[in-house]
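Look over this record before class:
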Amino acid sequence: MSHNNANSLGADADWPSGWQVRRVAETGSTNADLLLAGEGGAPHHSVLMADFQSSGKGRLDRTWVAEPGTNLLVSLLFRLDAGAQRPLHQFTQMVGMAAARACTQVAGVTPNMKWPNDLLVNNKKISGILAQGAPQFVVVGIGVNVGWAPEGATSLVHEAPSCAAKPTDVLRAMLPHIASFESLTPQQLHQLYQDELSTIGQRVRVEQHGGAVLEGVAVAVHTDGRLLVREDNGAEHHVDTGDVVHLRSA
């Protein structure tokens, strides 16, 4: 496994200032590696990108595997500033919204964000996020399908065949957007996230742990990140976790 030093990717390594990006050819999981680095004192805005992950995880312990070198597989570390009082879930929201903007920027493909943080194009998944917390920091891992997608999902190249973007291009476009989101107050960021979330106003089916299924209209997102779903009989549910499916209107 080759470990390149921070910012040593050669000519294309002009990462935005304030970020320490390290890229490796292969690892088990960028999230696991960056969690360890965080415990060892890695600074705020440390970023670990891998060309291939052998043990990448998605939400609910699903595996996330991509062909080597084709997709963006990256984790970002955020130190928790006691003064900022930013809720943990907002770090994943920032990364998701930044990835959506980066897809537009580098490929002209604009994904919709599905609660909580999946990015969809034509109702097919193009990106997923997994965050893992520690007492002093949070690590947000994201996979963006750039040149390859598993069955049932999509990629930037599939949606925009003339797209010549590389995974590094997507990451480079993302980082300034994240920095700009960090300058917002938690209230401002929540409003922006809710405005951009395509789930709001949609009829949805929520598949929850234990097999429970809920169907209704997604009405809003609380400031704590929970999704408010109203059933046809008026009953309201506050959803912490679950798989949301956007249902087509009848």
Remarks:
- Residues 1-12, 57-61 have pLDDT under 50 and may be disordered.
- Residues 89-107 form the longest helix (19 residues).
